[in-house]
Amino acid sequence: MSVKLHIKKGDTVIVNAGESKGQQGKVLEVLVGKERAIVEGVNMVSKHTKPNAKNPQGGIVKKEAPIHISNLQPVDPKSGKATRVGRRVNADGKLVRYSKKSGEELK
Q1: CA dihedral over 102, 37, 52, 58, signed as positive or negative
Q2: Is the pLDDT of residue 70 over 70?
Q3: Which intervals hold domain KOW (predicted)?
């Protein structure tokens, strides 16, 4: 069973809870089954890697870890603050997401 999520790849989001609270970034990937998202520059973890073709030296690599969707809120295009998301049918008859704060459409 798939659930409709309020966040999509490419959205700019703010983290509203957890260790990375207050940080802002772009969603790189959404893991729908796990209800998590990977956000650019947020929730960084150190990963120990063996030497391989991509990283011949090996060592410790910093990378983004998935963060739960409930801890993310999209950024309002007008004010730049966190907002809730609604869905409505636009003039073309297409279902679009919009910011509850300003009423503006989210891309």
Answers
A1: positive
A2: yes
A3: 6-33
Q: Which positions ≥6 away from 22 have C-beta within 8 Å?
A: 14, 15
Residues 6+ apart with CB under 8 A from 83: 73, 74, 75, 76, 99, 100, 101, 102
Q: Under a CB-based contact definition with an 8 Å cutoff, are residues 17 and 42 in contact? A: no
Reported as a single tens digit per residue, the pLDDT across 10-33 is 999 999 999 999 999 999 999 999
pLDDT of 107 higher than 90: no
- Of 11, 3, 18, 30, the C-alpha closest to 73 is 11
Q: Is 4 helix (H, G, I), strand (E, B) or coil?
A: coil
- Token digits of residue 27: 């969603």
Q: What is residue 70's three-state secondary structure?
A: helix
